[in-house]
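Long-time lurker. I teach an intro course on protein structure, and each term I like to show students one example going from raw sequence to a predicted 3D structure in token notation. This year I'd like something fresh instead of my usual example. Would anyone be willing to generate the tokens for the chain below so I can use it in lecture? Attribution to the forum is fine with me.
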Amino acid sequence: MQTSLPVGKLSPRYLSQLFERYTFPDERVLLGPGIGHDAAVISFGDRYLVAKTDPITFATDEIGWYAVHVNANDVACTGATPRWFMATLLLPEGRADRSMVDTIFDQIAGACTALDVALIGGHTEVTTGFDRPVIVGCMLGEVALDRLVRADGARPGDVLVVTKGVAVEGTAIIAREIGAALQDLEADFLARCRDFLYTPGISVVRDAAVATAAGRVHAMHDPTEGGLASGLWEMAEAAGVGLVVDEAALPVLPETDVLCRRLGVNPLGLIASGSLLMALPPTAVDAVCTALREAGISATEIGVVVEREAGIVLRGPDGDRELPYFTQDEIVKALG
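-- Reply from a regular --
Happy to contribute to a lecture. Here you go:
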């Protein structure tokens, strides 16, 4: 009898086996499936088409807004501009009504308008087996041939930089989904956490545009499920490199720290859209970080890229230890 798979991502090892077994080369595909490859890149002659698909599975509130921005983020991490969005909306039998559908479509439209993205199609149905609505989004974008940033581009010697803080999305989800149960925390504090969805916001599209306009960027990654820690692992795995991450430098947001301590979860494994992770050549760090800060986006140096043999290390006051990889996001623990 086979063991059931746990909630969360498939293990990197198993996922790699699936890719090796079931995917096939295509000369027009510059970047296909792989660990840390969050968007596909396809040659269209004078430009590249970038394609991304991702579901919204943890949040129930504002899922249309999440779906657009989460998919747009991964497109932007290739240096591309998100252009076109499609959505498959699965609605729960016995609970779905016109008000639910109108609300979700309004959220999608609002997010598309904010990013200047066109909603171009998809699929909507009421179906069995769901107790809440689920959205699977697909974002398409385009990038000039000389502006592409590859997910596997990190190189030894690069500096790791992260924008905003850890973990914007997880903080918003916790406050929105179970805030009513956290009665020991002040209402103003929880309201601020709920507003993280918009301020500082889960989008990194602007972060990526500012960074790539300011200097050379070797790799970008949008840490989502599994948090910043898993995002760092995925960036390293994609490029075949190691990392040394300075634990003291990690910009865990104060509100996130309070919620994580209250719920007993690790902020480094908490779903983290809203933070852009970058690998920058040392010569570009000052220009990129200065441009981001001038645009009102905080930027923090958190470590360096090293040779693969050095491993993926979290350097703390008690020495070096392996950086954890979270196959199951800490939001599962937080939401109970």
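Some talking points for your students: The longest strand covers residues 81-92. The mean pLDDT is 95.
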